[in-house]
Write the structure tokens for this entry.
Amino acid sequence: MFKILKILIIFFALSALIMSSLFFSLLWKYSPELPSYSKILQYKPELSSRLYSSDGVLLKSYHREERIFIPIERVPKQLINAFLSSEDKKFYSHLGIDFMAIIRASISNIFALFNNQKLIGASTITQQVVKNLLLSNEVSFDRKIKEILLSIRVENILSKNQILELYLNDIYLGFRSYGIAAASLNYFNKSINELDLSEIAFLASLPKAPNNYNPQTNYSKAIERRNWVIDRMFDNGFISFDDLIFKDK
């Protein structure tokens, strides 16, 4: 028993040493190429200008990217929980990247390559913010490494709530909508505080592929994905069994 324990300790120590060496070598190689993260620190989103009639009817919206900025303290908790459940349930505990998710995705993708299946990602919310604001959508090993390194740096200069605020206001959710506030108005003609659980879960289902889950063109896929988010919220303890009654409507 003691011999096995000793072998395990040596194995984990060597693994940690190898991982640390790999990390610092990548940091040494890519650090000079990393873009400045001043854009995140000085984030100034392009906002919509809206013209209303005297009785409150929207007449015209002027924008390049339709977005309404909402401070994180004004975002309903259940809406935050929905996005955490669908995108990054360990957001408040990881350091910018989720090592276990990366390992699981890597193993799954190895099998997917041999079976001609779709590859899966393992990006955290922090990584998505970094990719959207500082990098491109290029699919490459170099971009992924830069994304990981920048995510770790961003976690050291911004609080979790600041990162989440950037994410919820910048993410593209389809239907000409950037951020949760614009999406809430465009899909449901409601403010985010008026949304019910079904609508909240639908918005949280969109980041991965908003055009694929547009209810006007792919209603069944939209409902299936919305229900998946609700199931994740239940599994994570954010909603109770009574909240699931409406799910099949």
Notes: The first strand starts at residue 49 and ends at 52. The first helix runs from residue 2 to 30. The mean pLDDT is 79. Residues 42 and 166 are 11 Å apart (CA to CA).
